[in-house]
Amino acid sequence: MSSPHASTPGDSKRGEVIVDQVSCDFSGTRVLHETDLTVQAGEFFTLLGPSGSGKTTLLRIIAGLIDFTSGSIAIDGADVTKLPTQKRDIGFVFQNYALFPHLTVSQNIAFGLKLRKVRGPQLAKRVDEILELTELGALKDRHPAQLSGGQQQRVALGRALAQRPRVLLLDEPLGALDRRLRQDLGSEIRRIQQESETTAIYVTHDQEEAYILSDRMGVMEAGFIRQVGAPREVYSAPNSGFVANFLGETNTFPAEALGHAAAGTTVRVGEFTLTAAALPQMKAGSVCTLSARPEQIRLSTDLAGVPSGFEPVAHVTVTEARFFGQSIRVRLADARGSYLVDLDSSEPIPEPGSPAVMSIRSHSAVILPTSN
Ligand SMILES: Nc1ncnc2c1ncn2[C@@H]1O[C@H](COP(=O)(O)OP(=O)(O)OP(=O)(O)O)[C@@H](O)[C@H]1O
User: Fold this and answer.
1) pTM above 0.80, yes or no
2) For ligand 1, is residue 205 a contact (CB within 6 Å)?
3) Does ligand 1 lie within 6 Å of residue 131's CB atom?
4) Does 3.40.830.10 match the CATH number of domain 17-241?
5) ipTM of the complex
6) Gap between the Cα atoms of 95 and 176, Å rounded
7) Atom number in ligand 1 closest to CA 57
8) For 144, which DSSP code?
9) Fold classified for 249-369
10) Is the CB of 57 under 6 A from ligand 1?
């Protein structure tokens, strides 16, 4: 598909980024470890992780703003490791908009184009295209001080896209905005990225933002990319305790792997035996952890009430139940620890102090190595 905003009409394959074995040390401390990553052309890829995990460092390395220790960066098959930032054909958007205060919206958008000697009707045409793409036409003669934070960020986005970069790098661009505006502008960024057919690499520590925006995401911890996949894939099949916990609430149970069947891997949790998602590399007899999201679990008053397709995992006591509109959030406990279950709001609200049986949909729980 091509659009008036496309990077190069008819060529939607621009912007593949390959990070190959990149390591980075700051003052003798390794902050990025032999990192490999391929971001496909036209993809919206998010680097998600807690503060200090190395997201910004990796983004700045792709941008050419940091001298790193080893490894290489390629864009569209060409090694750019030694190429200065301005020759990499990338656009940036940061948390602080960094607009020129004395220039209007149009002039801010035109700035980089003028530096590249774009002039006359060609310049006016491109600025108009960007004003249309970012829906800033009505504000084109205003100065940044006369704009809201969200509008300023759209100008920054437009300015970054004006030169048709191969790759757009965004570092927490919604960080300074309130929650409502974050959602609205997040959708706008996604629309603009798709219409302009630009590869986007986006840094955030907010998992909701990552889910909404990304085609795929990489979850980072302590200088490693721990898992890469589509948001739903990473949420429902985390490969470690860290990823499971970072991407939302989860319940964990100490377990022992018993064996493998076509349908999944059988595990023992206390007195119960149940089938989790297949993990063929887990040896029978290994100690492991079973992880299930709050919405994968049902509650019944006794074993006879476990719904079909579900398997019991624990006898527990309800400690708290709260109505949340769309769901009922129930906290439970047994001698091993506490749990969280989200029930459909049409179900009865359990009484604190009452006994319950937790059951998990067969084959849906994930087995994690216990070292995580
Ligand atoms: N210029 C620098 N000199 C020394 N250490 C640095 C430098 N820049 C970053 N670091 C360290 O490198 C690690 C990774 O930092 P980075 O900014 O990439 O993390 P991040 O995941 O983007 O975090 P945040 O979400 O807080 O921005 C941190 O431990 C940080 O303190």
Assistant:
1) yes
2) yes
3) no
4) no
5) 0.95
6) 6
7) 18
8) G
9) OB fold (Dihydrolipoamide Acetyltransferase, E2P) (2.40.50)
10) yes
